[in-house]
Protein: ATP synthase complex subunit 8
Organism: Climacteris rufus
Amino acid sequence: MPQLNPSPWLFIMISSWLTYTLIIQPKILTFIAPNPPSNKAPLTIKSPTPWTWPWT
Protein backbone atom coordinates (compact mmCIF):
# COMPACT_ATOMS: atom_id res chain seq x y z
CA MET A 1 0.00 0.00 0.00
CA PRO A 2 1.65 3.25 -1.09
CA GLN A 3 0.09 5.44 1.63
CA LEU A 4 2.00 3.48 4.29
CA ASN A 5 5.35 4.28 2.72
CA PRO A 6 6.62 7.37 4.60
CA SER A 7 9.40 8.07 2.14
CA PRO A 8 7.71 10.64 -0.13
CA TRP A 9 5.83 12.71 2.42
CA LEU A 10 7.76 12.43 5.70
CA PHE A 11 10.68 14.54 4.51
CA ILE A 12 8.33 17.17 3.09
CA MET A 13 6.35 17.34 6.33
CA ILE A 14 9.43 17.61 8.55
CA SER A 15 11.10 20.20 6.34
CA SER A 16 7.94 22.32 6.15
CA TRP A 17 7.53 22.27 9.95
CA LEU A 18 11.19 23.14 10.48
CA THR A 19 10.85 26.00 8.01
CA TYR A 20 7.78 27.25 9.83
CA THR A 21 9.21 27.01 13.35
CA LEU A 22 12.71 28.28 12.60
CA ILE A 23 12.15 30.94 9.93
CA ILE A 24 8.55 32.05 9.57
CA GLN A 25 7.33 31.96 13.18
CA PRO A 26 10.01 34.30 14.66
CA LYS A 27 9.29 36.83 11.91
CA ILE A 28 5.57 36.71 12.64
CA LEU A 29 6.07 37.04 16.40
CA THR A 30 8.06 40.28 15.99
CA PHE A 31 5.04 42.13 14.62
CA ILE A 32 3.38 44.60 16.96
CA ALA A 33 -0.33 44.25 17.50
CA PRO A 34 -2.19 47.27 16.09
CA ASN A 35 -4.63 47.31 19.00
CA PRO A 36 -2.94 46.14 22.19
CA PRO A 37 -5.27 44.89 24.91
CA SER A 38 -6.16 47.43 27.55
CA ASN A 39 -6.77 47.01 31.26
CA LYS A 40 -10.38 48.08 31.15
CA ALA A 41 -12.64 47.35 34.09
CA PRO A 42 -15.42 44.88 33.28
CA LEU A 43 -18.89 46.32 32.97
CA THR A 44 -21.27 45.52 35.80
CA ILE A 45 -24.65 44.41 34.52
CA LYS A 46 -27.70 45.13 36.62
CA SER A 47 -29.89 42.16 37.27
CA PRO A 48 -33.06 42.47 35.24
CA THR A 49 -36.36 43.03 36.93
CA PRO A 50 -38.66 40.02 36.83
CA TRP A 51 -41.21 39.96 34.06
CA THR A 52 -44.74 40.53 35.25
CA TRP A 53 -47.06 38.20 33.40
CA PRO A 54 -50.60 39.57 33.06
CA TRP A 55 -52.25 36.19 33.69
CA THR A 56 -50.58 35.40 36.99
In short: The radius of gyration is 27 Å. The longest helix spans residues 7-29. Residues 2 and 8 are 10 Å apart (CA to CA). The chain has a mean pLDDT of 81.
